[in-house]
Design a protein that fits this description.
Elements (H helix, E strand, L loop, with lengths): L3 H11 L11 E5 L4 H12 L3 E6 L2 H12 L6 E4 L5 H15 L4 E4 L14 H29 L2 E6 L12 H20 L5 E8 L5 H4 L12 H14 L3 E4 L4 H6 L4 H14 L3 H13 L1
Helix pairs in contact: 1-8, 2-3, 2-8, 4-5, 5-6
Length: about 290
Amino acid sequence: MTSAGDNLQLANKMDSGSKVDFKAKVAIVTGASSGIGEAVALDLARRGVTVAAVARRAERLRMTVERCQRSSPGSFAVVADVSLRADSDRVIAEVLQRSGQVDILVNNAGIALHRHVIETAVEDVERVIQTNYLGAVYMTSGVLHSMIERHLGSIVNITSVAGHLPLPQEAAYCASKAALSAWTQSIAIDLAGTGVHIGELSPGPIGTEIWQKASVDYGRRLYPPQVVAAAVVRMLEEHRTYMTVPRRFGAPGAIYPLLGRPMRWGIRSFAEAGMPKTISESRSAIMRRH
């Protein structure tokens, strides 16, 4: 079991010195009002990047941008819902109008349901897919042509180990991240030789609002968002196409196709052990009804 101090040491180790001059670069970071997006925005701003921070919650986003501006005065907020095509187009148009270019795009915006499949409506699944997958598609499609014209640019899509390994009560979330993973890896092939980099960063359990609200208690198993922010920088520096952070969380997804049955049992047992009794009893009642 890792401590908070160990987690921060991991982040500091990954951020041992930048190999790229980030100054004069412009980055769009979605989902920047909290969690991973906030940490990424602050890290990039600290390196001199002009950050266009994007999120739905105006007040929380304002606070993120104020902190970014201490290091990068030109950083600004764009309040938008990237699950809406019109909003995504508006974000890109505003950033290009204000900054003239987009050098970096970090697609991080995401939501989860924390809901048993029997309790999940199709409309709920559509909402998750729209935000977690299509939001990234809209934003990427909007910046890609200008990046290719300049033969310059980096896109980092934040997926999840949940895109490679099933989680209980997270079918929609897992599916959305799996879709984003496959889409990213296919685009990486298409973009070969264009000068444009795209990569997938797959975090393990991170201490963000999404997982703090989950029905399963992850407790001290959660890592700080700064670990992911440091990994984003590393991907940008090294033009990596795939990275898992912390690294050890990549192994379960890799072996799952070979050991699916015992792993499903283990995942289910882990979830039940970390689930409050009232929720566990409610789930059992649902199954009895059906």
